[in-house]
Each structure stands twice: as structure tokens, then as C-alpha cells.
Amino acid sequence: MKVLGYHPVLRYDYLVDGVRHTGRRLAFGFPTPSDLRRINGPLYNGEVVEVSFDPEEPARSTLLRGPVAEGAMIRMMLLASLLLAAGACLVALGFLIGPGPRTPFS
After folding, report:
1. Is residue 104 part of a domain?
2. Please, are residues 50 and 17 in contact by the beta-carbon 8 Å criterion?
3. Is 5 contained in some domain?
4. Strand ranges in the chain using DSSP code E only, listed in sequence order
5. For 21-51, how does the pLDDT look when each residue is reduced to its tens digit (9 = 90+)?
6. What span, in angstroms and rounded, lies between the C-alpha atoms of 12 and 51?
7. 56, 61, 64, 67 alpha-carbon torsion, rounded to 10°
């Protein structure tokens, strides 16, 4: 069986100005398995970890700050560019070949 993706399931509690919040986000963006390994040990052991949150909206939080999985984002952009180029080639090929011969039923 081939695994095509993963979705870490986590929950953490944190306090902001005495108000308790619950977070479920590992990172903004596309966390990779290495991002998950970086935080997995402390979480699995129940250690206290740093939670980053939006001061304007404290319920919005993450455990990993900064750009995560830049490589994954670049790969997605390259794949999208390749698919767009392939589509453009198919359209151009359709114009070069033309509609083909007409039949009585077309």
C-alpha cells in the first residue's frame, strides 16, 4: 500500500491573558514528515512546548512558526506549471491538426 499523504491529529491547550484556548494546528502551510518529527518528541512525552498565536485573534495558533515545507510548496507550483504547459500543448496540437474530415453524421 502506498501512502499519498498524512494528516497529523493533535490537540494542545494554552493560556492567553488567563483565557484557556485549544489548538489543533501544527503549522500554517504544508507540514512535512520532518516538521512533524521535529515537534513529535516533546508532544508525545507531554512536555511543555511553545505555542505561537495571533495577538489579534488568540484562538488562532500553531506549534511551528515560520515557513514550513517550502520544498513542498515549490513542488506543487512546479507540478501546476507542468500541467498548465501540457494543457497548452494539447490545445496547440488541436489547432494544428484541425477538426479532421467531416462525416455525414457530424
Report:
1. no
2. no
3. no
4. 12-16, 19-23, 52-54, 57-62
5. 999 888 777 677 777 777 777 777 778 888 9
6. 9
7. -50
This prediction has a pTM of 0.54
Residue 27 lies in a domain: yes
The pLDDT score that the predictor gives to residue 75 is 74
C-alpha cell at 65: 512558526
What is the spatial distance between Cα 37 and Cα 55, in angstroms, rounded to a whole number? 27
The whole-number average pLDDT for the span 74-95 is 87
The pLDDT value recorded for residue 1 is 44
Please report whether residue 7 resides in a domain: no
Name every residue whose Cβ is closer than 8 Å to that of residue 6 and which is 6 or more positions away in sequence.
33, 36
Burial of 93 (0-12, 13-18, 19+ CB in 10 A): exposed
| Domain range for 16 | 12-97
DSSP 8-state secondary structure symbol assigned to residue 97: H
Domain count for the chain, please give it.
1
